[in-house]
Amino acid sequence: METHEATRPPTHYLCEQRFFEDFRVGERFALPSRTMTDALFAAFQLASGDNHPVHYDVEYCRSRGMPGMLAHGFQVAIQTAAGAGFFPHMVEHSLIGFIEQSSHFLKPVFMGDTLYSALEVSQLVEQRTTGVLAMKSSVINQRGETVMEGTQRYLLRKRSSPQNQARALIQPKKPGDNLE
């Protein structure tokens, strides 16, 4: 069987590798849309352990004037997980860590709503050999209403450091690598 250099790790990448200085404020990363189904509510309950009836009992919700089960805030926030899109594939060599996340919940999300999420580079804070990339996260429902806004911050290596250039060319990123 013939092998091709381009298909063997660590040279097989879904996207071109990018470093801190390769990003620009305003770049947008759309994430896949998702309809909030009964199965997603059940999976979130199982994973989170949250058992409040507002999230899992449709009759409880209806008796309180809601159209159906209310999504947990974290169930909405995870719709902005960068791993659902291309961003983490772009930073396989430069990502040091996901360092911060915040969310503001603006409107309720109910079972049956379809959510459209995106991340947009909002700030670039340069450091000596690294930089902090901040992204605005947003979730919009099928009616065009913004239901959540937030921020995510990532610590990335800079390409300009000779040490980082050598590391990216010679070694794949290893857990625990931390260059300042």
Give an overview in words.
The protein has 180 residues and is an alpha+beta fold. The chain has a domain at 9-35 and 82-169: Roll (Thiol Ester Dehydrase, Chain A), CATH 3.10.129. The protein is built from six helices and six strands; from the N terminus they run ββαααααββββα. Strands 1, 2, 3, 4, 5 and 6 form a six-stranded antiparallel beta sheet that branches. A hairpin with a 4-residue loop joins strand 5 (130-141) and strand 6 (146-157). The relative contact order is 0.21.
CATH architecture descriptor text of one domain: Roll
Q: Tell me the number of strands.
A: 6
Mean pLDDT: 88
Structural class: alpha+beta
CATH overall fold name of one domain:
Thiol Ester Dehydrase, Chain A
Fourth-level CATH superfamily of one domain: Hotdog Thioesterase
End-to-end Cα distance, whole Å, is 43 Å
* CATH class annotation of one domain: Alpha Beta
Strand content: 25-35%
Q: Secondary-structure element order, as H and E? A: EEHHHHHEEEEH
Low-confidence stretches: none
The main β sheet shows up as: 6 strands, antiparallel
Number of helices: 6
Fraction of residues in helix: 10-25%
What integer value in Å does the Rg equal?
Answer: 20 Å
Overall geometry comes to elongated
